[in-house]
Amino acid sequence: MGSFQIKSSAADLMAKARAMTGVYDIADPDIEEALPRLLASLNSEAQLSEAGAAAMEQRILRTLNDRLRIFRDFERHPEIEEQ
What we know:
The protein is mainly alpha-helical. Helices cover 67% and strands 0% of the residues. The chain contains three helices and no strands.
């Protein structure tokens, strides 16, 4: 059993998340800085199986989608923070 890597780059994953959510105008500097390091670490240290690499890529994509939607919702409805 070999070690597989996540094939998408950080930029590719962000572009996919933006296309899926329709959120193009909100920056997420924390993720944009950390995501390349996470991918490098997973690809060099995690020894992922083929299924594991695909699952991790999907999990990261879901997380990016959620973050973009949350930022969008906070921007549209700042009163959310009061709750």
